[in-house]
């Protein structure tokens, strides 16, 4: 069965380059972010009062995340010629995710040991008292074991997974549903067609919501600066600077080198996704651009089944920014509390983080819970030490989300190349012109096309 054209790759999600710059979404989002910073700085009480504006926009986006993930994965599986390809793409994605997580954790571990931002703080663990949200994060983290993501992947209710917005559980259910849909043969063809049509409707709703992206970014940034103040950025400036610098290094050097092997320029890819990065910066949530990211990657010519399986799964398993944050923050707390960590203990931390980092992306606070879970599991670093970085965690969450977004974009291209279905010339053409091209129909489940295999 030949795949139908993907309605998910809705052109309404991609801003036409022919529009004047002042009519493009990225300009208005950037303007909103600047206005939000000024509002929170000059009128802090007003900025704090604008919190519902930002949270409402993020909630509106999250409302559509689980249905879009479900529809995209089911349509992707239903559109391939055989389940063998689905399993192959899924396995390659998970292998790359694990390798990427390990590298990101190692980069963060090396950076914090080289620069030692926590040295000289000399905070006494006994004097650190958990309170407010930080106490709740630690409580949530203590309730999570290193293996929790393995058991939590199976929802107690399919409806509950959608209601709670648990992406990992929705992915699990969607994969089972898609496999069953393929297994029933011709009976499932009308259902696949119906899912494609339903996807078009859901993406049209998303298009309407994205028109409010500048408003959401303004509210979220106003609250952040009004609540925590610009001075918060300088109180732990060395830690923040190291995290941002390490993340930039990872994206430009590590991810850039991977793309260079594919003969793709990392800076052109970042420019192509500039609107998505600005929306993430304003909302602190990579989930807010998940549907747009999939549409943009399909616009590069990446096949729908690769995008539909790799991107949603990467949002739970490929969290490069969260991984860098975990290793850097854990060792920073150890340094700040004068807790000695041997090389073996740090490697033990890294081993636990490989597991606790899964599912820690998406929204603010999830990375903090993963950090608390790591410290509670290992026990060598006082969990109360997270109070030292709680005040600036909000400012680091933006960087986590931005790095996660970049990592999942690169991962999709790598998996497509691994599948020998990445037309590098086409990708570079789109990145150069800025004009997305519709994804080609999926080929039959044979070995890779010779022309693409040589690319």
From TrEMBL:
Compartmental location: Membrane
Keyword Transmembrane part of the UniProt annotation: yes
Residue segments, region Disordered: 434-455
Protein origin, superkingdom: Bacteria
InterPro entries: Na-dicarboxylate_symporter (IPR001991), Na-dicarboxylate_symporter_CS (IPR018107), Na:dicarbo_symporter_sf (IPR036458)
Pfam families linked: SDF (PF00375)
Main location: membrane
Record NCBIfam families: PRK01663.1 (NF002461)
Identification of the protein by name: C4-dicarboxylate transporter DctA
Organism annotation: Streptomyces aureus
Organism phylogeny: Bacteria, Bacillati, Actinomycetota, Actinomycetes, Kitasatosporales
């Amino acid at each position: 069965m030949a795949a139908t054209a993907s309605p998910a790759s809705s052109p309404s999600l991609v801003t036409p380059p022919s529009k004047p710059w002042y009519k493009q979404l990225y300009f208005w989002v950037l303007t909103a972010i600047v206005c939000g910073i000024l509002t929170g700085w000059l009128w802090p009480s007003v900025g704090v009062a604008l919190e519902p504006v930002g949270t409402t926009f993020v909630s509106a986006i999250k409302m559509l995340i689980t249905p879009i993930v479900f529809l995209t994965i089911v349509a992707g599986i239903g559109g391939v010629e055989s389940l063998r390809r689905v399993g192959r793409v899924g396995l390659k994605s998970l292998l790359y995710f694990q390798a990427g997580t390990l590298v990101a954790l190692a980069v963060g571990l090396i950076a914090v040991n080289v620069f030692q931002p926590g040295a000289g703080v000399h905070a006494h663990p006994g004097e650190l008292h958990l309170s407010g949200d930080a106490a709740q994060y630690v409580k949530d983290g203590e309730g999570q074991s290193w293996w929790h993501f393995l058991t939590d992947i199976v929802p107690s209710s399919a409806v509950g997974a959608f209601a709670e917005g648990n992406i990992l559980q929705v992915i699990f259910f969607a994969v089972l549903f898609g496999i069953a849909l393929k297994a029933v043969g011709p009976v499932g063809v009308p259902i696949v067609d119906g899912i494609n049509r339903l996807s078009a409707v859901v993406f049209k709703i998303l298009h309407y919501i994205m028109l409010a992206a500048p408003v959401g970014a303004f509210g979220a940034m106003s609250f952040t600066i009004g609540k925590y103040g610009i001075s918060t950025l300088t109180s732990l400036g060395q830690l923040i600077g190291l995290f941002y610098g390490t993340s930039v290094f990872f994206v430009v050097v590590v991810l850039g080198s991977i793309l260079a092997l594919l003969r793709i320029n990392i800076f052109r890819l970042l420019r192509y996704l500039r609107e998505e990065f600005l929306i993430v910066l304003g909302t602190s949530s990579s989930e807010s651009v998940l549907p747009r990211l999939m549409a943009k990657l399909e616009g590069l010519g990446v096949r729908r089944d690769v995008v539909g399986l790799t991107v949603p799964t990467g949002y739970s398993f490929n969290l490069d920014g969260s991984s860098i944050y975990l290793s850097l923050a854990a060792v920073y707390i150890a340094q700040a509390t004068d807790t000695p960590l041997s090389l073996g203990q740090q490697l033990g931390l890294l081993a636990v983080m490989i597991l606790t980092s899964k599912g820690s992306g998406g929204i603010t606070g999830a990375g903090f819970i993963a950090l608390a879970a790591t410290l509670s599991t290992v026990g060598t670093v006082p969990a109360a030490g997270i109070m030292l970085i709680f005040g600036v965690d909000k400012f680091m969450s933006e960087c986590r989300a931005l790095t996660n977004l970049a990592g999942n974009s690169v991962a999709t291209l790598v998996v497509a190349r691994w599948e020998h279905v990445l037309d590098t010339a086409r990708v570079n053409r789109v990145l150069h012109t800025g004009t997305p091209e519709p994804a080609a129909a999926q080929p039959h489940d044979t070995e890779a096309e010779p022309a693409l295999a040589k690319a």
